[in-house]
Amino acid sequence: MITSETMKRLEFDKILADIATRVHSDVTRSTVLAVMPQNDARSIADISGRVAEIRRLSSLGISLNISQFEDIRPLLDAVRPVGSFLAPQDLLLFIPVLRNFSDIARQFAPRSDIPLLKSLEPSLRPFADILEPLAASIDYDGSIMDSASPQLKEIRRGKRSLAARIRKKIEEIVRDNNIEIFLQDDFITQRSGRWVIPVRMDSKGMVKGVVHDVSSSGETAFMEPLEIIPFVNELENLTAEEKAEEIRILRQLSAWIREDAADLAACFGTLVVMDRLNGIALFSDQFGLEVARMNSSGGLTLAGARHPMLLMLQQQGVLQRVEPLDLHLDGNGQVMVITGPNAGGKTIALKTAGVLTLMALCGIPVPADGARSDFPLLDTLLVDIGDEQSIEESLSTFSAHVARIATILGQAGPRTLVLLDELGAGTEPQQGAAIACGVLRDLQGNGATVIATTHLSEIIGYVHSTPGMINAGMEYDAEKYTPLYRLISGEPGHSHAIEIARRFGMPEKVIEFARDMLGTAGADFTSLLAELHRKREELVEARRQLEQQQEQVKITEKELERRAAGIETARREAREKAWGEARELISTSRRRMNELLEEYKRERRSEIIDKLRNSEREITEQLKPKDHGDEEHKPLQDVSEGDAVHVRSLGHDAVVLQVIPKQGKVRVRAGSMELELPLNDLAAPLAKGGKKARQPDRKSWGAASAETEERELKLIGLRVEEALDMLEPFLNHSSLSGLREVRIIHGLGSGRLRQAVREHLARHPLVEEYRPGEAHEGRDGATVVTLRG
């Protein structure tokens, strides 16, 4: 358990006090000041997650709709007895609370990005059946408005009318009876609820009426004229009716509150929690705090950490800069001892570690790098910071420290963080150092994580030689003799007491005597620390240069990637352009081939065949790949009949039927088509099996007609574009072969391929007619084509 005394020693109460200034109710302020650390990771995550959701809304320009409100729980207790009712001023306090309920409920209702806030139980609800009549009944000054009920409105209207009549009647009495000369003053007023006029005491017998009061000087009598008494009595009756109606209204409003008292109290608790979380979020936004990560290993890592009190001073302009603190402890009994000069920042580092750990355990974002910082889940946090000298208990500073540390040793264990300031101070240095080393050893044995500060250089050697312990020092500018407030892990600090004494005016003869007294051991130790500092600076510089080189390498890599992307884009554009030109060539060639076929069928002239062959050679030459695109196919040195080959211009495999060496050509079969091709248009096929493959690879062909089925073309499984590319040469070769009827097998599928095939056939010059297949021909999954004779 972490005590309130520990939190106060670390000045955590000042942080809570600052957060408390940002809430909207005294009851919320008291809950903020009473915030205690949690030891459950889920509870901490819920708090920090809800704060993060509020801050996310704020980043979108959406603030929680919370206005000032008062604690209504005592009033809910007062109204619980049946028949009791609250005064208007008390009922007035419910209106801002209920409006907060309504505003937040309406604000949260449509959102899906704040699951943790919406999971708060109970969820806030509007209580419109209470808020609306309250707002219509109780005015801002605590009075009951006319709109509270129709009857009250009518009574008050009658009162105003009657009061006007009374005033008018009095004016008539004064005017008609010529009694102005007996009046002390010309005004009408009220005494004890009665309407009166001021009459001189010596003339009161001249006016018919009842004296209700006398002035303090005794010169004026306040008299009620007899003629208005009936009107005033009627007015008092209306006043009584008004009072009764007001009480009835208050009873009714109180009864409605009584019915929902339990729900109102529960929702009020949610509102207070929401207000507290909003205060934390506002505090976090002001100082740019980040969500803390928690661990169960006991490790503590601070990266770019700053004490929040120093950040407050910086915002106030008191400090120019707050130096960040970096610190790492693995936990599991690890000990860090910080040494360094006075006013060098040792105690600030200690308190920063402690107060940020408290903030993290309370779910409050921390002033540190959230991605690189890590905080332990603790059962307890134990500290010994400050001067514990006690006159009443006759304890010196050393005695008080010893008593406090003895208590800490009895309480420390795993999941404990111990912070010890000026360990071993207050007594003879060697004995103090021995006691300090024993304390560190015992705490480490108990599994506690420890951060301690000290001036005793005797402790440094023990820490250096003990596994699980690490020295650290506050960096110091040896040339300017000024602290830099940066913590250096792994390197002990030095007090620099003599240099600091010289800087602040200590006589030189005292400084020289002190150096002589210190002896060579102290000088050697100082030289060792200076050498360590120099080597560390060299390592830091080397690391900086390495990081610059790595950054330059990254820039070069990005430039190469950019250039490679440009090259790839250019290649893709070239391929697309070549493909477009090829498609245009194919389209033109098809038209030319169809014209030649028509001419051939009409005239049966042999020269047409030569034209076809020449046209085929021209197209093959134009479509022949250049220096790219066939890297995967190796060129063939020689071929023979029956070899499986790959036709580069077609992009498909085929079987060699005849070799024509004199013409440098071969005749091949690709599916049901036979073609004469140049020998250099052939390449080794990709299909396994090598030579002597008697059939082309059907997978690479996509849809090939079987050799024995020259009258059929199978297009099942192909895209429309691929199918039409296969259909055109099939129709051409079928027509050249003198076939009268062929069958296109395209399957049913979605019908898109069938429709495209039939639309192509409908406008093809070689097609006379086409029809769906019969039952034995595949029905609508095939199309039977009749070619022109």
TrEMBL record:
ATP binds at residues 340-347. Residues 525-606 form a coiled coil. PROSITE patterns: DNA_MISMATCH_REPAIR_2, SMR. Residues 616-636 have a biased composition (Basic and acidic residues). It is an enzyme of class 3 (hydrolase). Residues 616-639 are annotated as: Disordered. Keywords: ATP-binding, Coiled coil, DNA-binding, Endonuclease, Hydrolase, Nuclease, Nucleotide-binding, RNA-binding, rRNA-binding. Its EC number is 3.1.-.-, 3.6.4.-. Residues 713-788 form the Smr domain. GO terms for molecular function: endonuclease activity. It comes from the Bacteria. Homodimer. Binds to stalled ribosomes, contacting rRNA. Belongs to the DNA mismatch repair MutS family. MutS2 subfamily. Endonuclease that is involved in the suppression of homologous recombination and thus may have a key role in the control of bacterial genetic diversity. Acts as a ribosome collision sensor, splitting the ribosome into its 2 subunits. Detects stalled/collided 70S ribosomes which it binds and splits by an ATP-hydrolysis driven conformational change. Acts upstream of the ribosome quality control system (RQC), a ribosome-associated complex that mediates the extraction of incompletely synthesized nascent chains from stalled ribosomes and their subsequent degradation. Probably generates substrates for RQC. This is Endonuclease MutS2. It comes from Pelotalea chapellei.
